[in-house]
Amino acid sequence: MRADARRNLDALIDAAKAVFASDGVDAPAKAIADRAGVGVGTLYRRFPQRSDLVVAVFQQAVEACADAADDLRAAHAPDEALARWLQRFTEFVATKRGLAAALQSGDAAFEALPAYFIGRLGGTLTELLDAASAAGTVRADIDAPQLLRAVADLSHGAATPEQSQQLVGLLVDGLRYRATV
């Protein structure tokens, strides 16, 4: 991909992410193109369907969340890396509320996303949980899918992103409570 085409693609995804967060996934295409500094034609050439753009934004966010685990593992003890990644995941969930409705719309373009989400983030969380459990700093009786669901449920039930963070902090404390160390 040419450098200018890559910049346009990145700008469109970043703009869509911001516009979706503030105005929802049904925001006008012109608002996204304007924020990206490109014409609407460029947007439609790269993303012919709205669902193409939603998928790209979602996948970029999933990858960024999963990739954050590497830096956290390198900088922190296993239980702290897990706790910090869960807070990062909580931010991800809080900023994707508008996408949830689109992803559950029945649109065939979104059918593969739940498996992608669980595979990528579940795999990352499994590695973090296994390391913390092996260190004896978190309980060993919970698995990644359970924990992903718990964080999502706590986040969706919270009134604010700050409350989500606080609730997930309590969940992390519970993970540490019956650790073997």
Describe the 3D structure.
With 181 residues, this protein is mostly helical. It has two domains: 1-48, Orthogonal Bundle (Arc Repressor Mutant, subunit A); 51-177, Orthogonal Bundle (Tetracycline Repressor, domain 2). The chain is built from nine helices and no strands. The protein has helices at residues 3-23, 29-36, 40-46, 50-75, 78-95, 97-103, 113-134, 144-157, 161-177. Helix 4 runs antiparallel to helix 5 (78-95), helix 5 (78-95) packs antiparallel against helix 9 (161-177) and helix 7 crosses helix 8. The protein is elongated, with a radius of gyration of 18 Å. It starts with a helix and ends with a helix.
Provide the descriptors you would attach to this structure in a database record.
Arc Repressor Mutant, subunit A; mainly alpha; 9 helices; single chain; about 180 residues; about 75% helix; Tetracycline Repressor, domain 2
